[in-house]
């Protein structure tokens, strides 16, 4: 086909190798690489852009006449300063360690949430000295949003919207000594099976949802509430000793007892255990709260 062997003003009929072996300018390289959907860039040893194949819309002043990215750092061109500083920090780490990196950033601009995957590798000269960085930016918004949605689903109880057992165990591992004392409440809806058998599972589900709602309304704002089983809930109260936790639950139960379902009052049993020091294993504290709740429930059944 006539003309297929030419690009711009250069004849490449002798093959790509002879074309690329000539002194190709950065402008020509940018033009070729810009055919790819990803953003490919080069930076010098100071983190200044040498060239970039795509100008993403988060850049400042990019629409000004004669504007170029060349010679500028991320802090000079990016509107999101936090990610700009992170980019330069990652550049310095690549230059220092000689190892590449890969990470994802979140950008929220003009009401639009985006996720970009950044890949960076060091460039070495013939003597092995690191002289710059080659990088790649991919838009991974769709896959990252799906991943985060699946993660949320894995940590959320679908019936109540509360965190589930996975979420509880994750959050317990995050707690530090600053949260001590930590009181854990294990709670259980009374008579759920009877409600299911008498009025149907839909009414039983409403019983559970109503319990979750009252917990969110009546407990302290910083209380961490989870549905961990069929009719089982766990409440984590940070910076709360056992006496304070007992007072909180008494006040909660006073409000809870005012609610009814199918003209029957709601009823709940609970147990409390408290971690006073860093030596206390929170999993063990949780087990003690479960045991305390079961014992209270048994005593109540014997009375009834």
From TrEMBL:
InterPro entries: Biofilm_reg_signaling, GGDEF_dom, Nucleotide_cyclase, PAS-assoc_C, PAS-like_dom_sf, PAS_4, Rev_trsase/Diguanyl_cyclase. CDD domains: GGDEF (cd01949). Residues 99-152 form the PAC domain. It holds the Pfam family PAS_4. Residues 180-304 form the GGDEF domain. This is GGDEF domain-containing protein.
